[in-house]
Amino acid sequence: MNAVDEVTQYEILCSVERISERYLIPVLEMQITQFPFVILGFHTDNGSEYINKRVAGLLNKLLIELTKSRARRSNDNALVESKNGSIVRKHLGYGHIPQKWAPLVNEF
């Protein structure tokens, strides 16, 4: 999971064991607390792991506005997609990483 500030380009990368709400919430909470400044907005794709009541509740509690991309418009997330290419794929490659390695990737 890649979180990027669009102004400063500050970036926090984390791995989740599975792309689901259950695994995403703790990682999202961790990412939000690691930014050295207040988060005002959170923009995501249309994935159900992000667009759900638990994520909305967390962001509402923290007064963070949630926005989402238009359907089938990957260029709405161009910043994070370019970071995925230059950072994530450069160091971890394009292959699948087994879920058992997610905690170790995060420790790294």
TrEMBL record:
GO molecular function terms noted in the UniProt entry: nucleic acid binding
UniProt-listed GO biological process terms: DNA integration
Every Integrase catalytic domain range: 1-108
Name of this chain's protein: Integrase core domain-containing protein
UniProt organism field: Candidatus Kentrum sp. SD
